[in-house]
């Protein structure tokens, strides 16, 4: 007879607890709190910020919706996961942000301080 499954190893009945595209600034605390689970032994949070790595980028535009345009230093994306074990949480968080970046082109329109702009990876 097989041993019963540990409660912390079971999938949560509501795996996606918060999914939103917003016109207002993102709140990493809200994202992190949304995945809290008493059975989770590990939680991981990724916060992606707008960076100036390409000739005086001031901010980013959005390809799919008329949303806010985050400036350099602003939070552009936040994802969080809770899993029974920390390694699984890190791996799941990485897969989630990689999948999101691959599928959703919302941060690829760079706006420069001289008034010019450029679509990257589109």
From TrEMBL:
Top-level taxonomic group: Bacteria
GO biological process terms held by the UniProt record: Mo-molybdopterin cofactor biosynthetic process
Name of the protein described by the UniProt record: Molybdopterin biosynthesis protein MoeE
Gene3D superfamilies membership: Molybdopterin biosynthesis MoaE subunit (3.90.1170.40)
InterPro entries xref list: MoaE_sf (IPR036563), Mopterin_biosynth_MoaE (IPR003448)
């Amino acid at each position: 007879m097989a041993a019963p499954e540990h409660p912390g190893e079971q999938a949560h009945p509501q795996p996606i607890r918060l999914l939103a595209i917003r016109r207002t600034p993102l709140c990493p605390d809200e994202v992190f709190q949304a995945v809290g689970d008493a059975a989770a032994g590990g939680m991981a949070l990724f916060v992606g910020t707008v960076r100036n790595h390409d000739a005086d980028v001031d901010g980013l535009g959005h390809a799919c919706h008329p949303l806010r345009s985050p400036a350099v230093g602003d939070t552009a994306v936040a994802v969080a996961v809770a899993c029974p074990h920390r390694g699984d949480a890190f791996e799941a968080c990485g897969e989630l942000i990689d999948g999101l970046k691959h599928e959703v082109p919302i941060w690829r329109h760079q706006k420069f301080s001289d008034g010019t702009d450029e679509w990257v990876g589109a």
